[in-house]
Amino acid sequence: MNRPEAVLFDLDGTLADTARDLAFALNEVLQSQGHAPLPFDAIRPWVSKGAPGLIKLGFKISPDASDYEPLRQRLLTVYERNICRQTSLFEPLTECLSWFQEQHIPWGIITNKPGYLTTQLLPKLNLDYPPKVVYSGDTFAVKKPHPEPLLNAAKALQIAPEKCWYVGDDRRDMEAARGANMVAVAALWGYIPDNEDSRLWPSDLAYGTPDAFYQALRQL
Asked: pLDDT tens digits, residue range 59-84?
């Protein structure tokens, strides 16, 4: 395996540990509707599924339910107000990004998170080496698992897709990477439900911790 010429990350559960703030938001919405809050350990694995996954977990409804959209909007509103109370980069990814800068390796973020939330969160992470490209779930007409956002990122960086790594903690991340002909890297430290077997994902590489990922990169 060759060293990547660019590295692209999913955001929630891959680059940044946002679970506690999203869990707080879900429990606020649950309690506002007369439900008991859920324990953090029950919420964490579902964070990578976004608002649909969290609403399904908390209220046992799907997006076609009549009360789904009001609950989703309430969840996003509460989260926006508390967007970086306990969020930080997974360690040692701060060190990893500094190493990217030393090695002149550009990096970026491709997330399905709504753009207005991505835009608010990133400055609060105090990134010394900011991403060269950031695409959110509403940047294009399609989002992951469609490969278009990844292909546009490679084009913006002027790097061939096959020379890029895409790192994510969800099957759709791996499907997007495969569709874009990028190296698909499974972030097993992320938010993965117990009933989901990451070994079945179409990934090329998999790492159990951010440190294992970083050390593997340094050895290439």
From this structure: 999 999 999 999 999 999 999 999 99
> Residue 157 is inside which H or E element, if any?
helix 148-157
Q: Are residues 39 and 131 in the same domain?
A: no
Q: How confident is the model at residue 48, as a pLDDT?
A: 86
* Residues 29 and 120 both lie in one domain: no
Closest CA relative to residue 211, chosen from 187, 195, 191: 187
Q: Is the distance from CB of 152 to CB of 132 less than 8 angstroms?
A: no
What DSSP string describes 175-217? HHHHHTT-EEEEETTS---TT--GGGS--SEEESSHHHHHHHH
How many CB atoms lie under 10 A from the CB of residue 5? 17
Active site residue 128: no
10 and 106 share one domain = yes
pLDDT tens digits, residue range 6-55? Answer: 999 999 999 999 999 999 999 999 999 999 999 999 999 999 889 999 99
Comparing CA positions, the residue from 97, 164, 176, 167 lying closest to residue 131 is 97
Single out the catalytic residue among 10, 12, 170, 173: 10
pTM to 2 decimal places? 0.95
Domain count within the chain: 2
With a CB cutoff of 8 Å and minimum separation 6, the contacts of 203 are: 174, 177, 184, 185, 186
Q: Which of 27, 51, 81 lies at the terminal end of a domain, its last residue? A: 81
Tell me the residue range of the domain where 138 lies: 6-17+88-218
Same domain for 125 and 25?
no
